[in-house]
Design goal:
Elements lengths: L1 H26 L4 H31 L10 H11 L10 H29 L1 H4 E3 L7 E3 L1 H31 L12 H12 L1 H5 L3 H25 L4
Helix pairs in contact: 1-2, 2-3, 2-4, 4-6, 6-7, 6-9
Length: about 230
């Protein structure tokens, strides 16, 4: 759903740069730790700002052919607002999403930044090249950026996936027959674990998610690095 991806990505990367500056300036924290902190805070900010769009996306994607409850994006917004308690209906499952996004975004930025720093420090001629906007600054080559971004996405997804499963169960809410057993984050985690276990419950669908998140994160971080050069931010 492109209407969510654009604001989510823009807010996340913009917030990451701003939080990184604030953490370094106000708290005096730098290095790997401030990447982890800034990444977590940026992910949470982006999620809160775009969560209603994610809710609608999940509801539309879950519909079975021939049983369409929602006729489109605007109709889904109207139905959720009128049938599920107003604005609070759009934020059902927000808590596990925020709790899951903190490690996901944090470890994504942390892993990518760490791999980038190590790569440029240990093998600058092999992995790096001069930045397009500032020849004095070394940046990773495009294919290395893609590799580091993919690894970052895989690690972050593995760590946060059980909370992602919890989020989806809570977002589907009223349209599932066992919705009364999935009202809170803790209830949902317990229910999924008791019914399906770890591999078939909390980590069900992880391998398929890798197919989506690894190239997605690889392209996202590579685009971020390239745009910083095009906009003369290095």
């Amino acid at each position: 759903m492109m209407i969510r991806i654009f604001p989510y990505g823009a807010i996340q990367f913009m917030a990451f740069d701003q939080y990184k500056k604030v953490i370094k300036k106000q708290l005096g924290i730098s290095g790997h730790v401030h990447r982890l902190m800034a990444g977590s805070m940026a992910g949470i900010t982006a999620v809160i700002c775009t969560y209603p769009l994610d809710m609608v996306r999940v509801r539309l994607a879950f519909q079975v052919k021939g049983e369409h409850k929602y006729m489109g994006i605007i109709h889904a917004f109207k139905m959720i607002y009128t049938k599920e308690g107003g604005f609070s209906g759009f934020y059902r499952g927000l808590m596990p999403t925020v709790v899951g996004m903190a490690p996901y975004a944090g470890f994504s930025f942390f892993t990518f930044g760490t791999l980038k720093s190590i790569g440029l420090a240990q093998a600058p001629n092999l992995l790096g090249r001069p930045s397009l906007d500032n020849p004095d600054v070394l940046v990773l080559k495009t294919h290395v950026n893609l590799l580091c971004g993919g690894i970052a996405g895989a690690i972050a997804q593995t760590i946060s996936y059980p909370l992602d499963v919890t989020r989806r169960r809570m977002q589907l809410g009223a349209i599932l027959p066992d919705s009364e057993k999935c009202l809170t984050m803790v209830q949902t985690l317990k229910y999924v674990y008791q019914q399906h276990g770890i591999r078939r419950g909390l980590y069900r669908g992880l391998s398929l998610n890798y197919i989506r998140c690894i190239p997605s994160q690889a392209v996202a971080f590579t685009t971020y690095e390239l745009m910083k050069q095009f906009l003369h931010l290095n």
